[in-house]
Amino acid sequence: MKKLLDLLTAAAVSTVMMFAAACNPEKLPDDRFPDDEDSTVVVTPKDTTAFPDGPMTWEDNEENSDGDNASFRIFASEDITLTACGDGAIEKEGEAWTLTGGNEVEVGVMVPGDKFFVDMLVEGYAELLEEYSYDADAKCYTGQIRLRSDVTLTPEYMDVPEPQVGDYYYADGTWSTELNSSKQCIGIVFATGRNEHDSQQYAELTDVRGYVVAVRNSDPEKPRNVFGWTDKVDVSDLDGDLEIFAGYTRTHNMEQQPEYSYDNFWACWSATHHIHPAPAMSSGWYLPAFGEFNVLFSVYHNVIREKILSVEGGEDMDGENNLGTYWAMSVVSGTDDFSLVDFRASMSYETFADRCRTNSYMYMNYTRPVLTF
């Protein structure tokens, strides 16, 4: 019985000691120091993250972090540009970039002409601060990341698909059959390949993949009922002009006129200064000629109209809020001028030529630019 009592007493004392130690983590008995009964291990909480090269300890707060002395290596391909954010500094050393004095960097991606940018693959630890988006001024995709370790950046591309009539065309110069709500849709593809009646030289393009009509009118708050270089345009003998793709050339010719301005040439000016800037890898917006409008009208009511209306802010070219007449570039005595095309399906014209009007037409008329890509 005495032995049993001694065992119970010893167990109770051990339990009390363990409980006391648990309640006081700052003073834990440590048998690593057998010669010193008072030796202790001080336990300090840390935010510790395991990295491939071993543990790395960091604290993301202004008092304890040491960002000024931190440095990170970034391995990236030649189509990537890097810019340090804030007080950081970055320079390239051999095959890697070295970021010091901070851990945030802006990443730019120069996409090859035969590829679409999909995503940025990151090997290592980093946070995405800004989603990658197309920068029209820099003519590249940009995003921002915060580094937590050395990283390798690899852009993910996809082969450029062949465009189809009715495809959605985006501000970054890409297109897709299904609407991508994460991108800004600025137009709809209404023709593919170079049209047989298009002999224009597009300064920005080496090849023609197709033609796009804008989803919105130009300057919709200010339609005009009379606008042109001369009082009237005779379209009775323009049959040879009805198939020619000439909008790009004639728009640029008009821009060379000494009197060219918003007030004097509103239709042409508003077409080239559309609310949605054209991508750098396109011709830029221009006022269509009869040829472009002829092809557009042939597919508008059975394909293009539905696609335009599916885009937020898209404006119907045959809608209730306007009379469906649009300015076009035409030819008068060898010079370029404006006339009109009627897009109303309710008007039973026999031919496309019957839809062409003069600039003395009495109603309010709009501009709807197109571009070539």
Q: Could you provide a short overview of the structure?
A:
It is built from 4 helices and 21 strands.
Would you write up a description of this structure?
The chain has helices at residues 2-23, 247-255, 266-272, 290-309, and strands at 28-29, 40-41, 48-51, 54-57, 71-76, 80-84, 89-93, 96-100, 104-109, 115-123, 126-135, 140-147, 151-159, 168-170, 175-176, 185-192, 210-214, 325-332, 335-342, 356-357, 370-372. The protein has 373 residues and is of the alpha+beta class. The chain folds into two domains: 69-159, no CATH class; 168-372, no CATH class. The strands form six sheets. It has a five-stranded mixed β-sheet, with no helix packed on it. It has a five-stranded antiparallel β-sheet with strand order 15-14-16-17-21. A four-stranded antiparallel β-sheet has the order 6-9-12-11, with no helix packed on it. Strand 14 and strand 15 (175-176) form a beta hairpin. The chain is elongated.
